């Protein structure tokens, strides 16, 4: 066997280690891309909807009563201050001041309610796949990512870009039939194309680029997992802890409600005795 007919790996053994490292990095990157998109497009929405359904309304109610208690305390403070200084005051002026001071809290409550409504709408809207269909969706998408994504396939053209865009949209919408069709269209493309043998410098540069991308995606995936709503998944999976959290929220609501009732009584007494209101 002469050198020209020898397998490439045998003729260039020094290239095999960096090429294998590049293959391994591409495999890791493909898995991370799938995990990132799965978290972003599906898991986050699913976890948030489950969390809102389980205890989201209790959290919102607890926050609502907490802000109400703070507002009543501030109202009592303002009225008591006017009475102590013997200034004639109008309740409408105090209410206007409270609206300004508590505008931020009102916006947070409104945002909380909007998030809950949106999460519940997502829960009962869109395509619902069985576990088997969901597994197929992920498998098809993983294959398409490996074939089409520019981080994994250096050969790019307009057709590949359109296929990738359509694949991402189909995966985001859980359109299994569309993803099946796109997978057929992409059958001519190879998964995880090897870097052609060139210089060691080129291989080192490719490895460095892939490593940086892997590290960046690892951080992105970690940030998503550690932020709301994905950081609530462990709680949802633990029925006992979920019940404990619901009980804590009920206690908070009761405490804030009692505090609000006490403040309402004190305010009524304060205003009933005051001669400085108009």
TrEMBL record:
Q: Which residues form a coiled coil?
A: 200-273
Judging by the UniProt lineage, the source's domain of life is Bacteria
Task: Give the keywords, sorted.
Answer: Coiled coil
Query: Does the keyword Coiled coil belong to this entry?
Result: yes
Q: What is this protein called?
A: DnaJ domain protein
Upper classification of the organism: Bacteria, Pseudomonadati, Spirochaetota, Spirochaetia, Spirochaetales
